[in-house]
Amino acid sequence: MDGTATRTLYLARHGEALPDQSGLTENGRRQAVLLGRRLRSAPLTAVHHSPLPRAAETARLVGAELDGVPVAPAAEAADCIPQVPERSELPPDVADFVLGFLDRFPAEEREQGPAVARAALERFAGPVSGDTPRHELVVTHNFVIGWLVRAALEAPNWRWVGLNHGNGSLTVIRYTPRRPSAVLLANDMGHLPEELRWTGFPPEIRL
Asked: In terms of C-beta density within 10 A (0-12 exposed, 13-18 middle, 19 or more buried), how is residue 5 classed?
């Protein structure tokens, strides 16, 4: 993660997905378009996205609102379970909840996820080489964003759990050489009208 120029990383969770995850709902498409309009003033040089259809469609719609910014898939942005902690890593009062939550996912996802999460950090986190600051957007998934935010805050590995993000929301992390990483925005939905906010959360959490 050594580098000589500042990276500003824009992270967006994909828009609301269809039940079969094959693409976006109408609400999800609206979220993506509005996110793209929000980002028009950002000096983005690239839009990376998870290969999964809900993220790819979101990125395509976001990119259509930008001026010539290239859009491309990135395997490192794929959905994953970033880490499964040992019980000894967890505070006793949350251990049963965290382990029970993660046990609901298939063993294959839990086993393969950490490699994807490491690759996401290697590709997207930290300052960049050269003299030119870089601004790039990654359209990805809730857990991946939580993992990158956790790392930026130097929180314990397991703390990606509970760092949740709504569909179409925006999180921004700045990595400046020789300074701590800075989380500038987290789960920001200011570009969305009220009826499009908080999708991806249980109804009782929609504020």
From this structure: middle
Give the pTM: 0.96
Q: Which of 98, 111, 109 is nearest to 141 (CA)?
A: 109
pLDDT at 3 over 60: yes
State the pairing for strand pair 170-175/134-140: unpaired
Q: How far apart are CA 101 and CA 56, in angstroms?
A: 27
Q: Where are the alpha helices (DSSP H) in 39-179?
A: 53-64, 92-103, 107-124, 142-152
Per-residue pLDDT tens digits for 128-158: 999 999 999 999 999 999 999 999 999 999 9
Token duo for residue 194: 């009220």
- What count of other Cβ atoms lies within 10 Å of the Cβ of residue 34? 20
